[in-house]
Every structure is written in structure tokens, then in C-alpha cells.
Amino acid sequence: MFVLTAPRPLIGGVIPDERPARWAVNAALVLAGSLVLWTSAKIQVPFYPVPMTLQTLAIMVIVASFGMRLGIATVLLYLAEGAFGLPVFAGTPEKGIGLAYMVGPTGGYLAGYILAAGLVGWLAERGFDRNIFKLFGAMFVGDAVIFALGIIWLGVLLGWDKPVLEWGLYPFILGDLTKIALAASAVVAGRRLAQR
Questions:
Q1: pLDDT tens profile 16-26
Q2: What is the CATH number of the domain that holds 26?
Q3: Which of 43, 73, 152, 193 has its CA 20 to 30 Å from the CA of residue 61?
């Protein structure tokens, strides 16, 4: 029987309680989430040295819906797919694949996805996914973590004498605010529909 209860993430309503079925559903969700991340990386607006993609939107919806553990597992599977050479990232295979790509200009952002997944997923499990303003705040902080690691890595990789904020932050602010507003709205609306 599938029941959506208050302490569970949104997707908790479709996860069965029986162990073999639960493992199968969780594995299917993580795989499907990694495919959504792969697709979202390919929808992009070119910027240098980091392109703007729909990944922030996808990550925030996935982790707020899946919760912390499944959200982190999804992001880790996506990163593992990329590390093994699958062209899952923005700019792959044109700009390289595998670990070589992952330590390039987008490396800090990719690492930030893991921390953001943990933070947003954890907060969603604690009720932030029931209020659009709280969830937007949680996603904003998660997005700030992604950008902080991304900027730090750009500075280390390209040099702090370069305009790393102009390359890796300023062009993305408005787009990311829009994406997390859409993500928060979608998750809260989804939860309300599920509760009906």
C-alpha cells in the first residue's frame, strides 16, 4: 500500500514498504533522476567558461521530491556516469569526457551538486517542501553552495586574477533565481496534489 505521510518526501508516497519492492523502486527512481539530470545538462545557453543549463532546476526538483538519501544517490550516480566517460555533462563530448572534464571549469559546480542535494533534501524531509517560501529559501541556500564551490574552483583553476565572478556567477543569478522559483512551485504544487 502507498501512503503519503507528513515526514516523508514527496516521492515517499510511491515507495512501497516491502523491502524488495522498495529497493527496486528506489533504484528506478535514482536511474530516472540521473537521466533527467543528463537531459537537463544538454539544454543550455552558452557562456564562457561555464554554460547555463537547466541542471539547477532539475536537481532542486529531484532532491526536494526524493529527499536527502535518494537525492544524493541520484546526483552521485549522475556524476559516476560522467566519470566513467558517458557524455552526461554540458559540453561533453565536445570538450572532453570523464574525469578530465570533471576537473575542468565546471568541476566545482559538479561537487556543489552533492552538497546542495544533501542540504535541500534534508530540509525538504523536515517540512520545507510544504511551504513555497521555505522551500525557495532552502533551494536558494543550496544554489549558493553550488556557486560557492564553483567560484572557488574557478579561482583555483584559472587564477584569482581572472574575472571569476563575471564568468561563473553574475550571468547566472537571474536565471537561477527563476529556476529555483519554478522548482519550489512545482514541488509544493506536486505535494498538494498528492495529498488530495
A1: 778 888 899 99
A2: 1.10.1760.20
A3: 152
